[in-house]
Amino acid sequence: MAKGKEGADQILNELFSYGSTKLDRLAFQTALDEIGAKASIGTRFSLQVLADRFDRGAELLADNLLRPAFPEAAFKAVQQRTVQAVAGRLQSPVYLSQRALLQAIYPENDATLRQATPETVKSLSLEDVRAYYGKVFRPDLTTVVVIGRIKPQEAQAVIEKYFGEWKATGSKPETDLPPVPRNKPSAAVVPDLSRVQDDVTLGQTFELTRQDDDYYALQLGLQVLSGGFYASRLYQDLREKNGLVYSIEAQLQSGKHRSVFTVSYACDPPNVSKARALVERNLREMQTRPITAAELQRAKTLLLRRIPLSESSIDGIAGRLLDRSLRDLPLDEPVSAARRYATLTADEVAAAFSKWLKLEDLAQVVLGPNPK
Predict the structure, then answer these.
(1) Cα separation of 172 and 139, whole Å?
(2) What are phi and psi of 244, to 5 degrees?
(3) Does 340 score more than 90 pLDDT?
(4) Which of 33, 148, 286, 299 is the most buried (most CB within 10 A)?
């Protein structure tokens, strides 16, 4: 969205619930109820309906998505609610701590740092929202996944029937965040008078992509660090042996051009620095000393078990297929992931941690009382 128009996406997502140009809010919901369907409209839209009513459900879904009503009265009401919601969020310590981390790891002009304010939301007109809709909602930015008791050719025919006339105008906008330089070390505190303990996040960004083979080595190492809960290194060292934290978790989020690594833990203010020292020690050991054979086998078992469990529901299957499509991953990526996890060695895990993690550049954000 254009600068100064932040918040248009929030208003737009709410306005979809007011129906289409053919069916107002009540009529649209009545039509869904008549076929026992559940639908949601937005940048991620979905439909749940019995197979023999899929045609009608898809018709209603397309009608709401492609011909939204956007009534003026509804816009005013949603705009007012959004102003209040945004004002409240900007005062939320949790939100401010999340933003502090983004500011610490990304350059100041990065798109992730743009935020809606009461002023930007108040300045929006209905035409601004319609313009944003026209720019963002287009078929060349859309992937549709159909899961259920329906043949592929039947599903394709229905989707083409109701979405086939959808045309894009103008150049396709860039939707993937670009690469960014590595962050510098920093420390920030976000006060929260309601807390007696601190929530601490250590993080950094680097150039790893989701398609990089090292992604799997890092994920396996993270299983050793925090994936096994009681059996994980971080939990054993920081809670069981030293009693410094209440909880701790390490995560890696990777996209097409960038990755973010974080370690989050909760502790009493006097233990923030002590816990961080042990976190860094554990990360350094992951870089310099191969994990044991038992740890390697346990991590592989957990990761391999997680693959079928993540696709044990209709929503899980559809969500994962959609995610792979958006990330330009092969649709059978879990198969190749399983093969890669099975063949990974302890030396490869150590090499990946050594290559990507720069412990001296960790950014720290503390939410709560002033740490010691």
Answers:
(1) 10
(2) -95, -25
(3) yes
(4) 299
For residues 313 and 219, state if they share a domain: yes
User: Is residue 351 scored above 80 in pLDDT?
Assistant: yes
- CB atoms under 10 Å from CB of 331, counted, come to 11
Neighbours of 201 (CB within 10 A): 21
Q: How far apart are CA 196 and CA 70, in angstroms?
A: 45
- Label the pairing between strands 247-254 and 38-40: unpaired
Please provide residue 255's backbone torsions phi and psi, each rounded to the nearest 5 degrees.
Answer: -120, -160
Residue 145: helix, strand or coil by DSSP? coil
- Cα of 196 vs its chain's centroid, Å: 29
What residues have CB less than 8 Å from 348, skipping those under 6 apart? 217
Residue 274 in contact with residue 222, Cβ under 8 Å? Answer: no
Number of domain units in the chain: 2
How many Å apart are CA 235 and CA 279, to the nearest integer? 10
Q: Is 158 in the same domain as 191? A: no
Q: Does the pLDDT at position 15 exceed 90?
A: yes
Contact, 209 vs 257, CB < 8 A?
Answer: yes
**Predicted pLDDT of residue 174:** 85
Q: Tell me how far apart the alpha carbons of residues 262 and 250 are, in angstroms, rounded to a whole number.
A: 6
Beta strands in 72-197 (DSSP E): 186-190
CATH code of the domain containing 51 = 3.30.830.10
Whether 200 contacts 248, CB under 8 Å: no
The encoded tokens of residue 208 equal 């790893």
How far apart, in whole angstroms, are the C-alpha atoms of residue 98 and residue 70? 32
198 close to 371: Cβ distance less than 8 angstroms: yes
**Alpha carbon distance 347, 222 (integer Å):** 15
- The token pair at 69 is 């009503």
Distance, in Å, from the CA atom of 368 to the CA atom of 130, rounded to the nearest integer, reads 41
- Read off φ and ψ for residue 59, nearest 5 degrees: -60, -45
Select from 163, 197, 216 the last residue of a domain: 163
| Angle, vertex CA 315, rays to CA 312 and CA 320, nearest 5 | 80
- Domain ranges, residue 105: 8-163
Cα-based angle 358, 364, 369 (whole degrees, multiple of 5): 160
Q: Is the pLDDT of residue 3 over 90?
A: no
Q: Do 115 and 66 fall within a single domain?
A: yes
